[in-house]
Design goal:
The complex is a heterotrimer.
Chain A (H helix, E strand, L loop, with lengths): L12 H24 L2 H27 L7 H18 L5 H20 L10 H18 L12 E2 L4 E2 L2 E2 L3 H24 L1 H11 L1 H6 L4 H28 L1 E2 L6 H14 L6 H22 L8 H22 L3 H14 L1 H4 L1
Antiparallel strand pairs in A: 1-4, 2-3
Chain B lengths: L1 H31 L6 H17 L4 H24 L7 H23 L14 E4 L2 E4 H23 L1 H11 L1 H6 L4 H27 L8 H12 L4 H21 L9 H15 L14
Antiparallel strand pairs in B: 1-2
Chain C lengths: L8 E12 L2 E12 L3 E5 L6 H8 L7 E6 L2 E3 L4 H7 L1 E3 L12 H7 L9 H5 L3 H20 L15 H13 L5 E5 L7 H17 L3 E5 L3 H7 L2 E6 L2 E6 L1 H6 L1 H6 L6
Parallel strand pairs in C: 3-8, 3-9, 6-7, 7-8
Antiparallel strand pairs in C: 1-2, 1-4, 4-5, 9-10
Helix pairs in contact in C: 3-6
The chains are: A mainly alpha, B mainly alpha, C alpha/beta.
Chain lengths: ~350, ~290, ~260
Amino acid sequence: MSSTTLSAPATAALPRTARRALAVVLGLAVLLLPAFADEYWLNSILIPTIVMGLAGIGLNLLMGYAGLVSLGSAAFMSIGAFSAYNLLLRTPWLPLPLALIVAGLIAAVAGLLFGLPSLRIKGFYLAASTLGAQFFFEWLFTNFAWFSNHSLTLTISAPRLEIFGIDLRPAPGRYLLVVATTALLYWLAANIVRSRIGRDLMALRDMDKAAAVIGIPVASRKLLAYAISSFYAGVAGALFAFAYLGTSDAHSFDLDKSFEVLFIVLIGGSASLFGNFLGAAFIVLTPIFLTRLVELLGLSAVFDNGFLINLEHVLFGLTIVVLLIREPDGLAQMLRAIRARWAAWPLRA
Amino acid sequence: MQYFLTILLSGLLAGVMYAMVAIGFVLIYKASGVFNFAQGSMVLFAALTFVTLTEHGVPFWAAFLATVAVMIAGAVIIERLVLRPLADRSPLTLFMATLGLSFVIEGLAQLLMGTDVHQLDLGIDDLPLDIAGLQLSQFDLFASAVAIGLVVVLSVVFDRTRIGIALRAVADDVLAAQSIGIRLPVIWRIVWSVSGVVALIAGLLWGARQGVQFSLTMIVLKAMPVLIIGGFSSIAGAIVGGLLVGATESLADIYIGPLVNGAVSNWFAYILAVGFLLIRPSGLFGDRTIERV
Amino acid sequence: MSGTTTPDALLSVRDVSLSFRGVKAITALSFDIARGEICSLIGPNGAGKSSLLNLVNGVYWPDSGHIVFDGHSYPRLRAHQAAVLGIARTFQNNALFRNLSVLDNVLTGLSRHGRASVASHLLRLPAARDEERSFRERAEDVLGFLHIAAYRDAIVGQLPYGLQKRVELGRALVSRPAFILLDEPMAGMNDAEKAEMSRFIFDINRDLGVTVLLIEHDIGVVMNLSDHVVVLDYGRKVGDGTPAQVRDNPDVIAAYLGTKH
């Protein structure tokens, strides 16, 4: 067999170093941000964007990479939140990072169970199974007070939020917890996506019959996709409950939350990891932007909160429809196109 | 036993309402293979339009016809702006598009007509009737009669008219139908219009029951298990599925609910549906083989 | 290198029948493919050629009869088990993963040889990195062999049809199968492309020692390339032998070639 194992072109070396340097600078900036950003920025913009972006990664691994639908992301987020709460409460010796991991694993098991129908059906029929999860767990956490330690309001808030004796409850602490967790999970997701496992998932998304014929274990890969996706949702849910909301209940993870995660994926771009943060930023910033706009125009008296929420819904819906028609690969693809144009700029201009 | 039968019957009557909504889905699914998630928001939009008109003094039938016109206009707009550009895309993409559409429609409905709960009086009292010892609601019986009437009308339309035959041809084989000169956009406009009208009727019946309000959009979530059980492509299936879901839900609420701390009707139908997906994926009456692995 | 019954048969199809909802696709079919040969399957459209391929690699299961591959007899085999046994295939209509790059498509052909665990892939442990490196080397070899190394990063769905066919061949080849099923690899190609593809098939057979079962409509290509030709008509075998024998067989001429020559 004639072998032509080509090495990477030498020109690729420079951008790579540059990219590494850029990553280091970005990383430092992200870590130092709490020193500059005020409480509002951390609480209302950065923390929710990052956490929802993480939830988006979870759904994207399932939907964007493996081509399996879920309308129940929030259910798995709630499992993560309620599991983490009970672990922190009932196993006081368990450190926070481990509690988050175990909570994620519990969500993963649930995800695997609700993913079982995917072995027999596909397409949007799968939405029914995950919708079932959505309603079942919302009901479970509302009807069984044990999950919220018999609190009268059925709410949960983190009993403790500390690591190595450092209290993480102030905004910068919660921000750093969220950033560190997300960075780690992002790295793991990037690894898996670029690996044999990731290729298997994309193969069964693009053509599952051919995937089976070339020897990819389709069934176990589908279940793996559900498990990994739900793990991410679970951890994101725990962070959403404790690092963002502070106090939450089963209805913090309702169907609308599931749709939010779905929209993050559709807007950010399927089969993209970074795009989820673009989608999350869109979802988090749009309402803030609308409110500010109305305030600036001095129309707060005319346009009440209900009006804004409905306007938001119309905007989100329109964005989805327009993106599906014009740019099915979402904001991430738009960004890539812009970057490509920039890279070619001296030549084209 | 009497109690059991009463529960069963009231469940069946609720199931008729589910079936009404499910029929709207079946029409669109048959003609285009799209699961129209926006059906629930169409119900809200139609009911809200109707109520707003009558509250401004428009007589019943005028308001009804005006709303029908609005729903048809909406169908034409949706076909042109959403469906046509997405015509050759995957069913999943279209499903997502209708999800986006549902946000637009419900948002618009409430932006234009407000978020208040409107009372709707169709002139039928919700009186309990005692028939052979069974407690039945007069309104539920009326709703059932309307649903049956609707099904009869739809069956006649789809069995006897040229449009119906064209529609069945499209459902059978899109390419073959197009090759004999059936124009797909026209078919889509028609089915979306008809399911808009079905949405209006469902919206009036549900609205008279529980007030015309946002929660009407939730009907879409009830219809999904109904369709899975009945089969996405069969009107008869939608009815049987609706009855089955209605009956098992109310029975489960009464007999299983107390054992597990409360009403289970929120998710029970889904568990039932998932069971069906595993055992009989094409539903009870489905003829189109669903995408199986 | 030919003949209807070979002691060293890699594949033996024995009395196999298959029907779809009562319509017979294949009726009591028997033939052997010797180790190391190129066997072509010809016959008019609807003769049951693709159905036979689907039987051989477990996409369909025969109603009766059995198939012996490399000493294993299997009445019911699953598609991925066939892959594990060393049966690779390409499809009549490309079945590539459209949104993946050429390299990634070829790499998926190696997936079932992966031994590194999911966890080690998650954490990029040395086991995962070694596996990935050796996979890439093997994939690059195949890309070079098929002269598509230049397209390694191109998204496969955007490539011209002829190149896609080659990528699919690469995906089948990369796992070093013992036996490869090619379902009309030259459909829709011009003469130059056909000659090139024939060359690849010849090299795969001679240089890599892969036994080939080929479905092809171009009789010229079949006669040049094959050691052995099996002719199907309406699910029955009407000819089986060397290209010369088949060409002279009156039944075959009547059933198939007669319309063409």
